[in-house]
């Protein structure tokens, strides 16, 4: 209570002396403190004050020409908090508030709620290229390889097939990755993808098609050597019963 009174007094001082931006930053600080409150989840009434604090900060920043960026950021943050609050209420899962737009989208997809993910994408104007990375990553996280393949066939990905390749390789799914690597139009990207899978001959062949073949070969040696070292270490640990 004393802390709240101190904040109020400081905010009043900033406002009375025309230091609107300082009052705005103070409001954002109060909002973050509410966000860290363990009770601020699953439709907690604390979300209302939290959003209002951010909206007040937005209005204060908007009154100063020097803080248009902060004003826009606060406005977007308040909107995101409202969306995340609604998601926590509807899913009864306190896992959204405090995360980024990207993580909010991925969490929705992981939970099987693509409709909500698409809505967040639309509301926050997430570019299609970014959407492909996020959705590929989310589907790979839950191992939904059929859905990932279906997604890859909906239309030609705006940024190519690299998101699919990376998602599969990061998940340790060589067979799945090999569905998409041949679709990479950049031979350098194909070469590096094959190298990450320890497919030496395929990596070399793709590298030979690249304009910067010599430079690429140098990077390949490093990647392949690292993979060999990891495999050797894994074999030793497996032999010792660690795996």
From TrEMBL:
The signal peptide here is none
Biological-process GO terms, alphabetical: endosomal transport; intracellular protein transport; vacuole fusion, non-autophagic
Superkingdom in the source lineage: Eukaryota
Might you report a single GO cellular component term? endosome
Q: Which InterPro entries match?
A: VPS16, Vps16_C, Vps16_C_sf
GO MF terms, alphabetically ordered: actin binding
The Vps16 C-terminal domain extends over 3-221
Q: Which family does it belong to?
A: Belongs to the VPS16 family.
Identification of the protein by name: Vps16 C-terminal domain-containing protein
Organism of this sequence: Aegilops tauschii subsp. strangulata (Goatgrass)
């Amino acid at each position: 209570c004393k802390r709240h009174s101190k904040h109020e007094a400081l905010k009043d001082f900033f406002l009375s002396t025309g230091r609107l931006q300082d009052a705005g930053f103070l409001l954002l600080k109060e909002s973050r403190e509410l966000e860290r409150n363990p009770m601020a989840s699953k439709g907690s009434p604390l979300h209302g004050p939290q959003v209002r604090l951010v909206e007040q900060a937005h209005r204060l920043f908007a009154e100063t020409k020097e803080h248009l960026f902060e004003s826009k950021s606060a406005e977007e943050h308040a909107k995101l908090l409202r969306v995340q609050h609604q998601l926590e209420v509807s899913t009864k899962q306190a896992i959204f508030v405090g995360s980024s737009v990207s993580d909010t989208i991925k969490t929705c997809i992981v939970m099987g709620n693509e409709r909500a993910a698409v809505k967040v994408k639309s509301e926050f104007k997430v570019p299609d290229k970014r959407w492909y990375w996020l959705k590929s990553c989310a589907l790979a996280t839950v191992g939904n390889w059929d859905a990932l393949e279906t997604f890859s066939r909906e239309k030609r990905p705006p940024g190519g097939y690299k998101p699919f390749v990376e998602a599969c390789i990061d998940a340790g799914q060589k067979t799945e990755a090999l569905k998409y690597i041949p679709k990479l139009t950049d031979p350098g990207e194909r070469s590096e993808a094959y190298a990450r899978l320890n497919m030496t001959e395929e990596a070399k062949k793709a590298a030979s098609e690249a304009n910067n073949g010599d430079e690429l070969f140098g990077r390949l040696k490093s990647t392949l050597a690292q993979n060999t070292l990891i495999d050797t270490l894994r074999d030793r640990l497996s032999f010792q019963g660690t795996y």
